[in-house]
Design brief:
It holds the Pfam family MFS_1. This protein is mainly alpha-helical. Helix content is 69%, strand content 5%. The protein starts with a helix and ends with a helix.
């Protein structure tokens, strides 16, 4: 209890004159512009868990797409190489998209961006499950990858803001673990789904997954 009370004590400030004649404010502890450091533990852990879940689902989606290839190829006249373009477009946007979308969170905030992009990803699964041809599948994967590209970087920023840098190592370790766990569980679980149900369910089943963080 005493430690929690200390987090809400007045912030010590040090005023330093800059060379340009302005005044710089240096905070010794718990910057008021970053109030998450003063949050109670339950709120920090809940926020971190949601950030890790969003990251896990994004990586899960990236690795699960290949499970639909066999069933999709049987229903549509495409080769496996052509089908892989649906995975390529998603992964390409994961790398390119943050250059454009990541700075948006600095203007509008991280929560609105994560909520909107997660909702877009969830809705696009409907287009994938009902895709009549490879073109519609590749296009929806392209848009979905654009929406998913900020989830990893933004979630990492959320976790970095929740703990001071001297105790940030363990939470960031769990964040990285969520990515590698998703890359392993995605193909295993979705290949089982594709074999026992059909390729459409590789996408249908991820709709409730992505609705859970919302």
């Amino acid at each position: 209890m005493a430690s929690e009370l200390k987090q809400h004590e007045p912030v010590k400030q040090e005023y330093v004159a800059s060379q340009e004649g302005g005044v710089a404010v240096r905070f010794e502890r718990f910057d008021v512009e970053d109030p998450s450091l003063g949050w109670p533990k339950w709120k920090r852990y809940r926020t971190a868990a949601i950030a890790m879940l969003v990251t896990y689902l994004s990586a899960f989606n990236a690795s699960a797409n290949g499970a639909a290839s066999g069933g999709f190829i049987k229903e549509h006249p495409v080769t496996s190489e052509v089908f892989q373009t649906s995975s390529f477009t998603y992964l390409a946007m994961l790398g390119i998209g943050p250059l454009i979308l990541a700075p948006v969170s600095e203007t509008f905030g991280r929560r609105p961006q994560l909520v909107i992009c997660t909702f877009i990803i969830m809705v696009l699964f409907l287009g994938m499950a009902l895709a009549p041809n490879i073109y519609s599948l590749v296009f929806t994967r392209l848009i979905q990858g654009t929406a998913a590209c900020i989830e990893g970087p933004t979630a990492a920023g959320v976790i970095a803001d929740l703990w001071p840098k001297n105790v940030r190592g363990i939470p960031m370790g769990f964040f990285v673990l969520s990515v590698f766990t998703a890359n392993a569980t995605g193909p295993v679980t979705m290949n089982w789904v594709a074999q026992n149900l059909n390729w459409h369910w590789v996408y249908w089943i991820q709709v409730p997954h992505f609705s859970s963080p919302l």
